[in-house]
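pipeline: protein-struct stage 2 | run 1193 | Rho termination factor-like N-terminal domain-containing protein
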Amino acid sequence: MAKDHGSSIKNDDTYEELRDQGASKEKASRIANAQSNDSIDHKSTKLEDRTKDELYEEAKKIGIEGRSDMDKDELIKAIRNH
């Protein structure tokens, strides 16, 4: 059974799995909470399927610097590595 990470983490199992895979605390909590809230559409989670504008907004939301100068492939790489 997963440890209870408090009210800020909505899906403790997913959070722990992502942390075990090397995801940062921020990234793991963002994904775990989005899955818990069903805000992730599993059909369109592939970054390659998103528009450059959608990727830019995601990069802005998570605080990636230099995003204005990035093309779509660079945005995808930056989001994945965040």
